Amino acid sequence: MKSRVEVTILFLLVFVLMSACTATTGNEPSANELLDTKPDMPLADTAVPSTLTPGTNEDTAVAAESDTTTNLAAIQGMQIMLLESFPVQVNVAIFGMLPDGCTSLGAIDIEQNGNTFDITVHTVRPKGMMCTQVVSEFEESISLDVVGLKAGTYTVNVNGMSDTFTLDVDNGSANEEASELSEVDLQELLRQTLTMALVDQSIPDYGLLAGQPNIVLSNEGIDPDMLPTLPGVDLVVMSPEEIQKQADEDGDFLYLRFDEITAVSATTARVSLSSFWAVAKTSDMLYLSGGGFAVEFTRTADGWQGEISLQWIS
Q1: Domain residue extents for the chain
Q2: Which of 33, 307, 42, 24 is nearest to 189 (CA)?
Q3: Is residue 178 over pLDDT 70?
Q4: pLDDT, tens digit (0-9, with 9 covering 90-100), for 103-154
Q5: In 10 A of CB 296, how many CB atoms?
Q6: Among 285, 309, 312, which residue's Cα sits nearest to residue 297?
Q7: 121, 196, 218, 296: which could join 73 in a potential S-S bond, CB 3.0 to 4.6 Å?
Q8: Do 156 and 145 meet the contact criterion of CB atoms below 8 Å apart?
Q9: b/e map of 33-63 (b: 16 or more CB within 10 Å)?
Q10: Phi, psi of 242, rounded to the nearest 5 degrees
Q11: What's the rounded Cα separation, in Å, for the pair 258 and 273?
């Protein structure tokens, strides 16, 4: 009997405890009710700060000029070329490699110190840019300012590579100091030069000139009244405009032009004469003929004595 009473009491205690754990007041609002009864207030600013990394912003997508890297170009070869003209022209051909698809040739700096030309060739590459790792070749021609240089050997340095070229005679400019020559001197120099070219037939490709009805001479740098009459030569003097007009009307032809008449000193002078093709505006021909020569003159007791010092083919 006693054991039943104890069991009953224990059961009642468990029931009371369970009822206390699950009891609710009935007045607590639900989660939905809390949202519905929340005062009308503006939502807080929830904008998310930008997390773009540098370089991805629209305003900085393209690198500015200052955002580039400059290096020395990798030069693998060079070749010095003397063009057969007077004054002589000197070009330096360089060959090298660009390391990737973003790198290109940059500035080319030339500095002359005495008989040495120092050439620095740069490359440019945008900073931080992903590039194709493709090596490519490049070739560039660089013109040197050699007009007025004295005869001699000159060294050219390009990014650590070196080569030399030699000028056999002083490389004077056209008509330099020609005013130092008297009219009598000029007449004699013109006569002797044209005699060598057209009577002695010493100018390169003379046969192409002789095959024309007349030999045309440009009036550039000369006074036509000083020109001589040469035996067996029909010489016609024209302006550059007249030469072009004749080519347009009658077709391409070869003509002569004095490149230089220079008083080197009181007793020496230099004259150069070249032949050029007058090409009509409608012509698509490319000529590899013509040429010229330079004559060094020395004044002696017997007058001016000339000797051909240089010849070239165009």
Answers
A1: 68-167, 178-313
A2: 307
A3: no
A4: 999 999 999 999 999 999 999 999 888 889 889 999 999 999 998 899 999 9
A5: 17
A6: 309
A7: 121
A8: no
A9: eeeeeeeeeeeeeeeeeeeeeeeeeeeeeee
A10: -70, -35
A11: 4
